[in-house]
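Notes from the pairing session

We agreed to fold both candidates in a single pass and log them together. This is the raw record for the first candidate, unedited. Please don't reformat it; downstream parsing expects exactly this layout.

Candidate A
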Amino acid sequence: MSTYMRYRAALDTHILPALGHLHLNKVTMRVIQRFYNQKLDEGQSPSSVITMNKVLNQAFEHAVKECLIGVNPCKGVSLPTEEKRDVQPLTVEQAQRLLQAAHGTMLEPFLALAVVVGLRHGELLALHWQDIDFPQGTLSIHHSLTLTEDHHFVIGDPKTKTSERMILLPQPVITMLLAHRARQQEARLKAGSAWQRSDLVFCTQQGKQLWSVNVRKRFYRLLERVGLPRMHVHDLRHSASTLLRSMGIDLKVIQEILGHSTLDMTANVYSHALPSMQQEAREKMNQLFD
């Protein structure tokens, strides 16, 4: 779900029903604190409450700027500690097992693009064949599949300005994509007039838009089959960053491949230490005593 949709859901589902009837100057820090405490008591996660605070804080900051109120009542409230999910990136061996298990299926190039060059789930589902230049070995990101306010999936602009990028593809991934295109052409002939002319790289057997929930289900079944723990499709993007870094790829290059707006995001959020990296560090430490 996009940031906008998370904020919209927080506003419509929680904030407006509880606070929408109050006059602006009646929403005090105490009122907001009581609202957050109530949401936690109802079983809302700390991250959900933090999202509600982001929405309210932005709204009240704007109200202060417009001189509608003198002080932002969100200032000073006590927020819960956000519990960050522990992402375990795939090792090289695990990534290879996953791709081998998906060999010959649509998931093979889908997962390869996620774990090798770190494409986002929405970017993969919005990818068109015209975005891939096979002679040059490049892939361009121009679109992403997003959820609209009325809960419909549409192909729109990428997440951020830096998300729109061109990526050089390794030859094995190009080979996977070519094989996938050949299989898709066979499916198109089989479907006949039922085929939808969408030009999507990843689509149904009738050429229709693939939905993220269906891809996730197939991904979970594949993980179970190869004996890997359940993870989010987005975790493969973390794996891509970590694997590229373990290969000695410059951090700035990884940032450009992933389409991050800041180097800090690449270094501190998406890059993790693999056991092999720890082993390499120990071997270099041992050299101090040689």
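Candidate B (folded immediately after A)
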Amino acid sequence: MIRYIEQDAVDCDKWDACIGADPLGHFYAYHWYLDMVAPRWDALVYGDYEWVMPLVYGNKYRIIPYLYRPFGVQQLGVFGAQTITESLVEEFLKAIPKKFVHIDIYLNTHNPLPERGDVSWRRTYELSLNQSYESIYSGYNSQRIKDLKKAEKAGLTIMENDSPDVLVRMFQSTIGPAKTNFSTGHYDKMKQIMYALIYRKMGQVVSIYDAQNALCAAGFVVSTRNRSVFLFSAQDDFGRKHGAMTKLLDHYLLYGSMRGGVFDFEGSDLPGLEGFYKSFGSELKTYPRIFRRLRFL
């Protein structure tokens, strides 16, 4: 029932309909997004696109075919409108062609798997938007409340629909090569991603400016029918000291409340960021990473 289909033979309309019907509401697996972030990807398709799984691939050391997670993607795996069981996920994994001798892929939070040697678990945090802002606010810890008061005292203001270039420049100047392995190509790709999502009316840059109209924080939020994803963000030392990122997220949660679905903080396994995202009253979710390699690799 599961077919391996090369990229050029994928029925993009049926593929996107399957991705759009998945209850998670992820945008990572739409064909146009995969085309943008992954030069080469093929597919596993169950039946008439009832369930699908993208396979992003490259050649390790130029000769060894391998599967990997591309830049700009947190979760892939099996998608479909109907319930995804552990046995179905296993069936898809068994259907991966043997030519991919090295595998390092990340599935999604609706892809159950048992504990075993080739599976580890990554962490993310989600907050339900099917509740009032008052209910969301009541879940903030004391530090978030303090940060909102700091932001108000500092006179921080919010600007929606800022330019992606503004956010990327801030990331480069405040985080950049000192704390990441980002290259010029990564920054260019992130700008391409953000502009593409803005063009499709699926994303926006939300920025925070200080009383002197200087940028001190910015973030990019992607919105689908039932999920908002905090894809990319940065802040400077002033913003960190005066609660700018808390104000930014609080602003989005204020206007996103009661829209349904979830707000996905998109991480993190890093203790500092994990604690920050958790402090909004969000819920821990885990998703599997599959890592397999031959001994000589």
